[in-house]
Every structure is written in C-alpha cells, then in structure tokens.
Amino acid sequence: MSKKRVLIITSELSPYLESSDFAELLNKLSVKTFDAGMEIRVIMPRFGTINERRHRLHEVVRLSGINVVVDKEDHPLLIKVASLPNARLQVYFMDNEDFFKRKFVYRDAEEQFYNDNTERMIFFAKSSLEIVKKFGWPPDIIHCHGWMTTLVPMFLKTAYKKEPVFAQSKTVFTAQQKQFEEKLSDDMFKMVLNSVPIKDKDLEPYGNDYDGLNYGACKYADVVIHGQSMLNDNIINDFKSNKTKKVVPYNTEWSEDISSLFEVYQTLAVD
What we know:
Rossmann fold
C-alpha cells in the first residue's frame, strides 16, 4: 500500500510565522504525521517578515517561473523551500515580489489593512494548487488553515475538480475566530471570477469579510475543525457532524495533545 499523502496549506507555521496558537499546533501535527509514515508537504506564503537566511530558504528553480493569473493579470510565482527544523519534511513558500516582499504581513506600518489583500489571497490560493499540479504529487488530504486559504476548498470543488492530481483529495478546513474587522475589496467576487473558471453561484456561500470567507470555506470542506472556542454563531450552528460533513469540535487540550487532530487524517486516509 502506498503512503498516504497530506498537504497542509496554511498562512502560518511555527517557526516561520506565528499569528495564533495554531502555528505551533500545525508544526506538531506536521511532525506527528511525518513520524506516522505519511508523506507530508506544507505550503505557505513567503511573507517579507520571514528571514530567508535564518530559516535557510532557497529558490526551487525548476518549479519557479509559473505565471498565476489574478483578476486577468499575470503575476510571476517564485517557489522557495526550507526543511522544518525538527523534522525531515519540506515547507514550500509561495513568493511574489509585488504581493509578499513587504515588512509587514496583513497591515502596513500605520496598521492599515493592505488594500490588495484580496489579490494576495487569490494569488496564494491559486498558486498553491498550481504548484501541486506541477509537483505531480496527488494529495489524499488537503488541510487548509487561515483566511488566506478560504478559497481553496471551493476551487477544488469547482475550477480544479477535473484535475487528475486532485481526484482523490479530501479537504479539511480550520475555522478560527475573527482576525480582522475590515472587508476585502467590494469587487472581490469579480476578481475571483476573473482569476479562475467558475460560476457566480459557486461564490454564493462566501462574503467579503472574515466571517463570510470562513463560512464559504466550511461549506465546501469535507471536514471542518472548530479551531477556537469563540467562533461565529453561523459556523457553530450550521456546521455540525452529519452524514456528509464531519466536524471536529474545539478541544482545550490540543496544546498538550494533538491526537484528536491527527485522528482526522487517519480517518480520511482509510475512507
């Protein structure tokens, strides 16, 4: 039997970027998954706050050079890679000078929400899937974490549905409590439609604010993890375990024991 393959697409991972407690949990989960004999790869943005020298990032020339269309415009994608310090697994960083080469993550020096965060989100979500196609590495499980990954579950069920590399992929999404109050671009839906071949109805579950992004991702994901105790009421009430969707409730013991999170992977691996 071939090893099961797990892909984690995340906007944070310890030690590279820690914006919530889940950065460390994902680190532990990645190591546990690797130690259990599964193949695992992690994809995240190469934010400008990540020190390339300290973390030993280097460009993967054979994978770089892709152009990713966002709102009808081509944006070059550079791929960088590093080995997670406490495990022999690789973390791939999606990089673009216009979107990520800045000194801050989501806000500028004056704490203003970047006005291109919509394009950055679309670029990261789309480039993550494009690079997996280039890998030719079909994942059995795709775990999406962070608001910048919220479009990925929908992309997989629509624009990328017929891609052979994703034919057997099942998606997991971590829902978190609100991390920003602002709204993304008013024409976010138009931007998405100009970036991938989908229909208006595919975007109906989404909104252009934090809760709307999370709700849409939960709607499309096969498994929803309630990553924190304080979640939007609609997510708590509308997404409960049933025959079509598994929901993992928040567990206060995750910081000490991530077994229940790893069980999600184990269960999906044998389904």
